[in-house]
Design brief:
By secondary structure, the chain is mostly helical. It contains seven helices and no strands.
Length: 193
């Protein structure tokens, strides 16, 4: 993913911090939530690596095949997890989007293929890219709306302390904020595909 170097570094930082938080969250939870956190950590770190500016790291051409294989495996895992609940569908879409971007970057003739990183106009199927952009834009808007405190959305000031405070381990709001930040990162990466 490239444009101005600063935006690339900001995206790397956002995705890496999100991946690190997901790793920490794994330690505080169990079962299904722990598995979701591990998948989100893989996604966060994968997105951070994919967003590294080309001046810093130019991975070999075969790295895109490894990317596609890793996220293909996470997509398969997500497909199996969808049987246990529709909320796993978002992880499946994210994994498939990462496979799609890796394949688009590895495609011969893609301008980003020789540098190993996403560049404007690198390739991809415009209709599929547009569909993924629409999905993530709607997801960002819905997740952002869910993070707005009810009292603040009604025009009253948000509560201070007590109920408005997030615990050290985070909470549902932090989990949603992490998913929101990764969705924003995905929008940025898809725009430059």
């Amino acid at each position: 993913m490239h444009g101005p170097a600063l935006s690339g570094w900001l995206l790397v930082a956002l995705c890496a911090v999100t991946g690190a938080y997901c790793l920490l969250r794994m330690r505080a939870c169990a079962g299904q939530e722990r598995r979701a956190s591990s998948g989100e950590a893989v996604m966060g770190f994968g997105m951070a690596f994919m967003a590294l500016p080309a001046a810093v790291l130019t991975p070999p051409g075969w790295s895109w095949a490894v990317y596609a294989a890793v996220f293909g495996a996470t997509a398969l895992h997500g497909l199996l997890a969808v049987r246990h609940g529709a909320h796993h569908l978002h992880h499946l879409v994210g994994s498939l989007a990462m496979v799609y971007m890796a394949v688009a970057m590895a495609a011969p003739g893609a301008p980003g293929a020789h540098t190993g990183h996403m560049t404007a106009g690198a390739g991809g199927i415009p209709v599929l890219t547009g569909g993924l952009l629409l999905y993530y834009a709607v997801y960002v808007l819905r997740a952002g709306a869910r993070l707005v405190p009810v009292a603040a959305s009604a025009g009253a000031p948000a509560p201070v302390g007590g109920a408005g405070r997030v615990s050290r381990a985070g909470g549902p709001e932090m989990t949603l904020a992490c998913r929101l930040s990764m969705a924003l990162g995905m929008v940025a990466m898809l725009v430059t595909l």
